[in-house]
Amino acid sequence: MNVLILGTAYPMRGGIAHFIALLASHLKKKHAAQIFSFKRQYPSFLFPGKTQMEEGEPGIPVDAQAEIDSINPFNWIRVGLKARRLHPDVIVYKYWLPFFGPCFGTISAIAKWRRPHTRVIAICDNVIPHEHRPGDRVFTKYAFAFTDGFLVMSDAVERDLHTLVPHPQYRKAAHPVYEIFGRSIPKREARARLGLAAEGNVLLFFGYVRKYKGLHTLIDAMAALPATLPPVTLLVVGEYYGDEKEYRDHIARLGLEDRVRVHSDYVPNERVAEYFCASDCVVLPYSSATQSGIAQIAYQFTKPVIATDVGGLAEVVIDGVSGLITRPESPALLAESIARFYEEHLEARLSAGAAEEKKKYSWDALITAIEELSTTPEGN
Fold first, then answer.
1. pTM: predicted TM-score of the whole model, two decimal places
2. pLDDT tens string 316-342
3. Residue 285 and residue 220: Cα distance in Å, rounded?
4. What's the angle, vertex CA 120, arms to CA 29 and CA 294, rounded to 5?
5. CA distances (Å), 298 to each of 51, 65, 67, in order?
6. How far, in Å, CA of 330 to CA of 110, rounded?
7. Which residues does 9 contact at the CB level (< 8 Å), separation at least 6?
8. Cβ partners under 8 Å of residue 125, min gap 6
9. Is the pLDDT of residue 380 over 50?
10. Cβ density class 155-175: b for 16+ within 10 Å, e for less
11. What are the start-end ranges of the H helices in the chain?
C-alpha cells in the first residue's frame, strides 16, 4: 500500500513523535510510507511546555516533511491537495486532542474527495480527552466525519468511540512497546550516571506532569509509607504542564525534599534508559486515563508498574503478574501497594512478569489492524 501518515515527527518531540517514527519504520517493512509532520503544532501561547522541539537524537531515522500548520485553514487546503496528488491508498493520523480535529478532518476530506479507494484511519489515543475544553465534541465529530476506520488501543477508548460514532468500523490492537530508547543498562550503572546510591529503593514517575496524572497523590503516598520500610527515593522526571512550584511546595510541606528527586526538564531519547533502568518500579498514579505509553516504556525495560485502576491501565498492568493495581486518588492505598512491593520482595517476580507481558505488545498486531481497516469496506 501507499500510506501517508499525518502527525508529529522528529525534530518535534514527545510520545506522539516516538509513536509516529516507530509506526513508519514498521509500515515500511511491507508498504510505502511517508510522513507529513507539523511545521507548527501548537501556537506558542497555547503550548504549556518549554519547547516543542527535541534536543537529542531521533532514536531511529525519521524522514518527515514539515507541512501542517495546525491553525491555518488555507494551509490545510494546500496540504490536502498535496496529499491528494500522492494518490495514497491509506491516510493514517494519530488522534489525541480535539484541537487537531479541524486540520486532520479538512486534509482528509480534500485528499479523499472523489477518490473512493483512499481510506482514512484514525489511531485513537483519546476520543474524549482527559481535560475537557469547549468545542471538543464538535471538533472530534468533524474529523471523524471524514474517517473510514478507527484503531483503538484500550477498552476505555473503544467505549468512548461508540458514544461518538454510530456503528464505527474499527479494530482494537494493544499499544506497542517503544523500541526507540535503546537497550537496558545495569541498574548499578544507571544509578551511577544519575548520582544515586547503588543500593536502596527507587521508584519512578516519568512523563509530562499534568493534573490527571496524579502526582499529588503519589507525593502524599510517599509521606504515608510505613516508618518500618527502608527509605524510598522517588524520581519525578518530566516537564511540568502547569505550576511546578505547586508540586515543589507540596513536597516541602511534607518534608520530603530528601526523598523526592525532581528532574523537571524534558529527557532526550538517549537518556530515557538511565531513569527506567535505575528504578525498581514505575508508578502511574493517574486519576483518569485511556492508556499510557509510559507503561509500554516500562515494559520495554522489563520494569514492573504500580498503577491505578483507571481507563485501560489495568488491561496492560496485570495485578500480581507484571505490577500492582490500586484505587485512584487514594494516597493510603497507593502507599500500601508501594510498601507491599518492597516488603514482599516482588521486584524479581513482577519484572519477570513484565518481560512476559512485553511479548504481547508487538508492532505486528497494530500493522495488521491497519491493513484490515484499509481493505474492509464495512463491519467490524
1. 0.85
2. 999 999 999 999 999 999 999 999 999
3. 11
4. 65
5. 25, 30, 33
6. 48
7. 17, 20, 21, 24, 35, 37, 62, 64
8. 16, 94, 95, 96, 153, 157, 290, 291
9. no
10. ebbbebbeeebeebbbbbbbb
11. 15-27, 73-85, 101-112, 136-145, 155-164, 187-194, 215-223, 244-253, 272-278, 293-300, 313-316, 331-343, 347-357, 363-375
CA distance from start to end of the chain: 21
The answer to which of 156-160, 198-202, 254-258, 352-356 has the lowest mean pLDDT is 156-160
Q: Work out the number of other CB atoms within 10 angstroms of the CB of residue 379.
A: 6
Cα gap 195→111, rounded to integer Å: 52
pLDDT in tens, 107-151: 999 999 989 899 999 999 989 876 777 889 999 999 999 999 999
At 254-263, the pLDDT tens digits run: 999 999 999 9
CA distances from 211 to 82, 214, 242 (A): 39, 6, 8
Q: Which of 94, 103, 164 is nearest to 128 (CA)?
A: 164
Q: Looking at the DSSP assignment, which residues form a beta bridge with residue 282?
A: 204, 305
For the chain, the residue count is: 380
What number of CA atoms fall less than 13 Å from residue 378's CA on the CB side?
Answer: 1
Residue 316 φ then ψ, to 5°: -95, -45
292 vs 258, more confident: 258
